[in-house]
Write a structure and sequence with these properties.
Elements lengths: L1 E8 L6 H18 L6 E4 L7 E3 L3 H12 L10 E8 L5 E8 L8 E8 L8 H12 L3 E5 L1 H11 L11 E4 L1 H4 L9 E4 L5 E4 L6 H14 L15
Helix pairs in contact: 1-2, 1-3, 4-6
Organism: Streptomyces rubiginosohelvolus
Protein name: Immunity protein 52 domain-containing protein
Amino acid sequence: MRRLVRGFWGPRPEPVESLADRWQRTLDGLTGLVPQAAAAWSQIHANGPATAVTPDEDALLGAVRAAQSAADWSDLTGTGLRLVGTGTPGWEVEVSGVAGGTPEFLLQSIMVVIHAPDGAPVPEEDVLALLARVWEPDFGDVSDNDVLDALEDEAGFSVEDPAVGRVGYLSPARAALVPDGLEAVRQELPGGGELLSIAVPGDAAAVVRACERLREAGALAPLPRPMDRAVL
């Protein structure tokens, strides 16, 4: 089964050392949470074959610097990396992100795609909590194709709209707008953001209802364009 765990935020310029540290903490956290998929890591390049990469400070700092040396790199866009972890057959985790830039219209993001055998337990809520701690996003979610399709078809959400999935993350200002009575288990994280446990896999209707209530309450309002801050 394919699971998507994502975080999004606005412009937040950062030095390469800070970005490399966030990447290292992400990979370390995933190794602890899904060791079946993190025995070995490789980097996917826009051109050419994948190359092996070790999840340590020096290697990741080199990868970030190399990404910034590309001819089409821009500090306005941010610095992108795409890494894949493999291990036990049937397991794979792909981590991709664009961060450290100052875009005015396109969000910065981190996304973890977890492939696991059918029926295998995956700590998807813990993975979202990891991304929230490490990357300090504005909002995030645990989703799958059924959830994304339902939000688009039934509630009119587009790709760039803030939303939550079966599990959601909201930054402190968004969490303060969560309405009373929302059908979700709320867990405050360090820093004041919240995880919202909303639905079990297969219950896309519950996710749609939660997103509609959160949108009506202002908790899923988009960042103003052109963007001038990382979070609401």
